[in-house]
Every structure is written in C-alpha cells, then in structure tokens.
Write a structure and sequence with these properties.
This protein is an alpha+beta fold. It has a domain of 110 residues: Immunoglobulins (Immunoglobulin-like, Sandwich). Strands 1-9-8-3-4-5 form a six-stranded mixed beta sheet, with no helix packed on it. It has a three-stranded antiparallel beta sheet with strand order 2-7-6, with no helix packed on it. The termini are far apart.
Length: 160
C-alpha cells in the first residue's frame, strides 16, 4: 500500500510513529487488537484485550516500544520507539482490528534512521598550536573579538 507518513530520527533518539483512527465515541480496547509490524514477519508491538501482549515481539524491539495507553481509546494508536537504531530503518504497518465486526484499519509509516551528527570535540591546548593560521577554526574568534572591543570603547566613553 501507499505510505501514510514518513518519520526521521537519529540513532539514540526516541521517535513516535503516528497512527490515528477517528472513532465514533471511544474505542473499545478490550474488544480490539493493534499490531505494529514490519512486513508480515516482524512483530514490533502487539496490543490485545486492553493490554500489551509482547510474547511474539521481535527481540530487537524488546523494552523499546510503547503505546499511549491513556490516549488509545480516543484513537491515538501511535507507537513510541526509544533508543532508535539503524536497523529500525523500515516501513512499519499499524493494523487496528475490532474483534466483533472484524473492521480493520491499516496505515503504513516509513522510518528513516540516520547516524547521529558528529559533534566536534574542542581541541586540547596542546593541539591548538598545530592548527594552521587561517583555518576555519580560528576565524570566528578573530571576527568576534575586534567587534566586541569596538563596542566596548564607545560604551565606556559614554559613561564618562
């Protein structure tokens, strides 16, 4: 089927895959099932009879998925995945089925996972001498100091 949404997350982040249904009144969670899965094989999260049922859950997702239990009866079937990993990159299906009338709703959400952006460590004092002058690292310092100096001089005179 077609994608209903695409989500982006970095490794280590928490992401919410959106899935909502518009119930007439409140959903009867005790008489419904909610599957979150990848393809037809990988069970990411399963909810039935008003509670999580994670026996068949794929081991890679163990302890990292949760539903918004307080909001489910109002139609929020979104799945929260914490500590996202590169292998979570996939198309997820949110399948909601009512047991009595077998009415089924399905949506598909693509999750794109990227490696976290690298945070540059500031160089230790011994390394600073090795940076050639004119490198991008010391340009902002040079630009900031004269500007603040020029601003301070007129302000200082103003108070005389």
């Amino acid at each position: 089927g077609q994608l209903d949404a695409t989500c982006h997350a970095f490794v280590g982040e928490t992401v919410v895959l959106p899935c909502t249904t518009t119930p007439v009144g409140e959903l009867t969670l005790s008489k419904s099932m909610l599957y979150w899965q990848i393809g037809t094989e990988k069970l990411v999260h399963f909810f039935q009879n008003g509670q999580d049922s994670l026996k068949g859950q794929d081991k890679k997702f163990h302890g990292r998925t949760s539903l918004f239990l307080d909001q489910m009866k109002h139609g929020n079937l979104s799945l929260k995945i914490s500590n996202v990993q590169l292998w979570d990159n996939a198309e997820y299906s949110c399948i909601y089925r009512e047991t009595e009338n077998h009415q089924t709703k399905k949506s598909t959400i693509k999750l794109n996972v990227s490696a976290p952006p690298r945070i540059e460590e500031p160089p230790s004092p011994s390394e600073q001498n090795q940076i050639p002058s004119g490198s991008p690292m010391d340009v902002p310092c040079l630009a900031v100091l004269p500007l603040s100096f020029l601003l301070l001089v007129p302000l200082g005179l103003w108070h005389l």
